[in-house]
Every structure is written in C-alpha cells, then in structure tokens.
Amino acid sequence: AQSVTQLGSHVSVSEGALVLLRCNYSSSVPPYLFWYVQYPNQGLQLLLKYTSAATLVKGINGFEAEFKKSETSFHLTKPSAHMSDAAEYFCAVSASSPKTSYDKVIFGPGTSLSVIP
Amino acid sequence: DTAVSQTPKYLVTQMGNDKSIKCEQNLGHDTMYWYKQDSKKFLKIMFSYNNKELIINETVPNRFSPKSPDKAHLNLHINSLELGDSAVYFCASSQDRGVSYEQYFGPGTRLTVT
Q: Which one, of A24, A34, A32, A14, lies nearest residue A81 by Cα?
C-alpha cells in the first residue's frame, strides 16, 4: 500500500526566501508522485509530477521537486517566495499494484504555506 | 471554458434532507472522481468512474450514491444528510484510469448541513 507524509502542516517564509515543503512517501512499487496546489476557495491544480523520466522535475510558477529514492522523498522547492504562493500544497503518490483491483492516488495531509511581506 | 465544473458552489441544507451535486468535464477524459475535503483540508477519495463504470468505491455510507449518465458527467446524490457530511466536495477527472495521469479538479461544492 502507498502512503504519503508531509512534515509541517504549516510553513511560513518571508517574501523572497527559499520555499521548502517536505514530502516522504511509502510504496512497494515504483511510484508516480505529484504536487498539487490549492489556492483559497479553489480546487487543486497540478504543480508538477514525477514519472521516472528525470529525478529533478520542474513545474509551474518556478517550483521544482527532486525525487530521491534512497530517502523516499519528493520535496518541493522554490528559490524565492512570492506573496501569490500562499496556498495549501498537497503531495500525492500513486502506483500500480497487482494486488488491488484498482489504482488510486493517495494525497498527503497538506502543508499550508504563508508568505510574510 | 471551464474544464471541470460543479454546481452548486455552495449548498446549505438541514439534516435529513436529500441533495445532489452535479459535475461536468469538457476535457474528453475517461475517468472522473468524487473527493471529500474535511475542515482540516484532508482529501479523501469517495468514488471513481471510468467510462461510466464504477471502479473505485471507498468506504462511504450508502447514503451517498454516484451516478454517471455519460463519461462527461458524474453526479453525487446524498440522502438523509447528517451534520458530519458538512465538507467541501470536489469532482475531478483524468485522461484515463492509469496511475500516471494527473487529475483536474473542479472548484468544489461547499456543503453545510445545519
């Protein structure tokens, strides 16, 4: 079975500072990994996804994430935070499993990012 | 054009009532989902349909019944609403049922049961 943990339910950074949101996963088979962002009162939208083509994945709005198999991590970073980055961020994992009759995506609990002017 | 749309956006109702939420996607996707997001932002899948066939049916009360009249629509009907049903319900779609496909979410329906 797959699972996702996100360290830190709330992260605050100053505008212009580095953003680091942590995600660790558990999967018995090679996973697909995603980061989604949810702005206030909106649905989730995809920031980026890892599909084994490259360990460093670049996404929208200047975000990127690095897949580290040895650490089972997929942390999200952005060099310089902007006020508009304030949102909820969700890490998600999915993987095929012959043991289940269906596949599904497991979302982490989310990390709320605040950006201080 | 809105890719995944839901109606209504807000729904306030009393305990015991029956209500429906509608979802439509114009992306040509084969798979659609219903998620429930609680007050702590935790996102839990409820159902998934692929080409009108139910493929994911998580442990939810049988008061919740999804219906997919065609692959572009997935509706959620809730009978005998309870206080604990208050949440934001998201519809989503993906190109296909495979695990590599990203999901596209609707704007959500905020359900408040009083």
A: A14
Specify which residues A88 forms β-bridges with: A38, A112
Q: What is the rounded average pLDDT for all residues in chain A?
A: 91
Residue A14 has pLDDT above 80, yes or no: yes
Report the SS3 class of residue A83.
Answer: helix
pLDDT at B94 over 90: yes
Residue B42: its chain A contacts at CB < 8 A? 109-110
Contacts of B100 in chain A (CB under 8 A): 32, 49, 51, 94
Contacts of A103 in chain B (CB under 8 A): 97-99
Look at A10-24, B2-16, B40-54 and tell me which has the smallest mean pLDDT.
B40-54
Contact B99 A112 (CB under 8 A): no
- For B56, the closest of A36, A49, A104 (CB atoms) is A104
Interface residue B93 vs chain A (CB under 8 A):
no
Give, for A66, the enclosing helix (H) or strand (E). Answer: strand A64-68
SS (H, E, C) chain B: CCCEEEECCEEEECCCCCEEEEEEECCCCCEEEEEEECCCCCEEEEEEEECCEEEEECCCCCCEEEEEEECCEEEEEECCCCHHHCEEEEEEEECCCCCCCCCEECCCEEEEEC
B39 touching chain A per CB within 8 A: no
